[in-house]
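User: Predict structure, ligand copper (II) ion.
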Amino acid sequence: MANRRSFLQSFLGLGAGLFAAEKLGASTSLPQNHRDQSPAFNVPVITTEVGDMPYTMDGDVKVFHLIAQVVRQKIAPGKTLDLWGFNGSAPGPTIQVNQGDRVRVIFDNHLPEPTTIHWHGFEDRIQYDGQPGISQPAVKPGGRFVYEFDIHQEGTYFYHSHMAMQEMAGMLGAFIMHPKQPYRPHCDKDFVIHLQEYAVLPSNTVPNTMSMEYNWLLLNGKAGPASTPLIVRQGERVRIRFVNLGMDHHPMHIHGNTFYTTGTEGGRIPESAWWPGNTVLVGVAQARTVEFVAKNPGDWMLHCHLPHHMMNQMSSSVGKMTRTGGMGAGGDMNTGMGMLQGTPGVPLGEDYGPQLGRGLGVAGSSDTATTNGPLSQEKANAAMGKMQTSTDDAGEMKMDEMGQMQMDTMPGMQMNDMADDIAPNANNVPNFPQDAYMEGPMMLMDDVVDKPENYGLNTGWSQYMQGMMTFVRVLPPEKYDAVVERMKRAYHPNNPYATIFDHA
Ligand SMILES: [Cu+2]
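Assistant: Predicted complex:
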């Protein structure tokens, strides 16, 4: 009881200004197996990768300092992007407050153009709604605007730039309002997952916000296998809040469990109206909250079920027609990635003729069909060179260079034994290749993406995790303790879920 009381005190902000430091620390002593009998209480949400925004107290006002800025962010091994985000990450860190709080957000614009922040779903005064030119002047570069709210709602809300293209460059974050009357039944773990997509041309670090097609699909700013699994103790009741502030809809699917949808971007759904499923469609500008009791042990996949959203760096090297002459394998970069050009300038207009998918070739040409055949080291190297590109950053390996390297000399990365993976007659089989587009499964990157949350996964798991894919790891007590012990050591002794953001 003492643990729970001190937890509540710190969580409710009775220790002024200590919220960020203490609330998660207390979560390490969450009681187990108390769901039905014990009273419900709020637990802070966990936003893997991006974490929480700290605050200070000014009297009884919680004060957050929100900074819009350029952020350099590693989204996958070998892939670093220049995004626009908040306080060092895109999405920005999560803001957590309680129903009844008075909240001030001091917003500074460190971007080179005007912006405003919209508070998505807030029922509050119009002057703090963040519509540039309508409810407030746009905040110019170097400028500041102070937002102030009386929190009377509960649920999963968002903050984001109200400039559409800036939003697509990463300017979004979660704003969680914890209810005065805690939700029942009590949840032991409460996660936030942002769903995002970027279109990034090869050798580029900047997303094309004009694109309607995407080749990088992210959970909390990371693509699989760099995404971070949700660590859960067997028997816990788990809440996951999916947030979608992108251009696509995402049917989020969990293996091995049935969840109930218990909330939307408008707050809690009455229990009589919850609906069961294993997939929930999270539309643009929506939140969907799901809950389930994690009773089945295992490393259960949690992923968007759109097939193209389970891939990284998608290219038109899929399908039989990429291996034969006679038909283009995709538009050039400009057309395939949706950059306006030509007459009449419509990316997929009739003036471009029939094409398949998006191309990764040289601008103005079609993709070159590649031949299939026995997998020599040279072929593997060539395929590597095309798969990913990266930046000119010192210290970061360019994928082109990697393509020239012997795989076995690259620390942590190995090519699979592909000779075993491709059938000798593969070229004669209709529809080949589909997921063998790397001339074999993806690279084995277990070591490259190693982190405490991945401890104990089956060797080779990273070859089959891409895009919007991660795990809910439902761990029996001993295994759970072993993983959490490693998280404590890596992040914070009292705060195992305080993930340290991996910038670049
Ligand atoms: Cu999706």
